[in-house]
Amino acid sequence: MEFIDEDLQHYAEAHTSPESELLHKVNRQTHLNVMKPRMLSGHMQGRLLAMFSHMIKPKQILEVGTYTGYSALCLAEGLQQGGTLYTIDKNEELEDRVRGYFAEAGFSESIKYYIGNALDIIPNINAEFDLVFIDADKINNANYYDLVIDRLATGGYIIVDNVLWSGKVLEKYRKKLDEDTAALLAFNQKVQEDDRVENVLLPVRDGLMIARKK
Do residues 72 and 66 lie in contact, with contact meaning Cβ atoms separated by under 8 Å? Predict the structure, then answer.
């Protein structure tokens, strides 16, 4: 569903800093060549992620769900000198494309890219995270959250994408309660009730849950 009027969305995008040439290339090539291009963060959300990263100035970032690398490139913009972004995806078919984009951006050394199951990989990353972005299978949102919350620095942030799920978190926008929607409802409530964090759910694109560790 569209959360705001389409013309207002276009106006907001027109008054948002533009994508870099490389991000525009990633955006366009993803839509032309990769299945499910809606999974890409895109211009507005990408600039928002970059803004958060610049404000937080993280030393260590974890991303769960790389896809074609757009969001990783945005998040990496705010890394401290010598910082590292760890990003994980299960789709090995996109690896060469994504590594190419990271190299083109000059981030080959600062981005550590893993292919495999994030539930297995996260425990083996030796880092305390300042910023975590979760944009993977919705069924495991709560599992990813549980894996990283104790590894998150005090004052660090977790950002989770797609928490409004095209509006299906509301009964009036769904025909039935499917497994993904049920998982998202439970996850959103889990964060809301977690006294370790303060949180805000932003109705940007498909919804972003932002939680700050106290």
Answer: yes
Query: Is residue 96 in some structural domain?
Result: yes
Q: What is the largest CA-CA distance in the chain?
A: 49
Tens digits of residue pLDDT in 94-124: 999 999 999 999 999 999 999 999 999 999 9
Q: Which residues of the chain have pLDDT under 70?
A: 1-3
Q: What is the span of the domain harbouring residue 137?
A: 6-213
- Token couple for 115: 């292919």
Domain count, the chain: 1
Nearest to 67 by CA among 133, 156, 139, 147: 133
pLDDT digits (tens, 9 = 90+) for 15-29: 999 999 999 999 999
Report d(CA 138, CA 199) in Å as an integer: 19
Report the CATH number that the domain containing residue 69 is assigned in CATH. 3.40.50.150
Compute the distance between CA of residue 134 and CA of residue 149 in angstroms, rounded to an integer: 12
Tokens in use for 11?
């106006």
Distance CA 143, CA 121 (A): 13
**DSSP three-state, residue 44:** helix
Q: Which pTM value belongs to this model? A: 0.95
User: What is the H or E stretch that residue 117 is in?
Assistant: none
162 conformational bin, left if phi > 0, alpha if psi -120 to 50, beta if neither? left
Report angle CA 173, 48, 174 to the nearest 5 degrees.
5
Q: State phi, psi for 115 to the nearest 5 degrees.
A: -110, 125
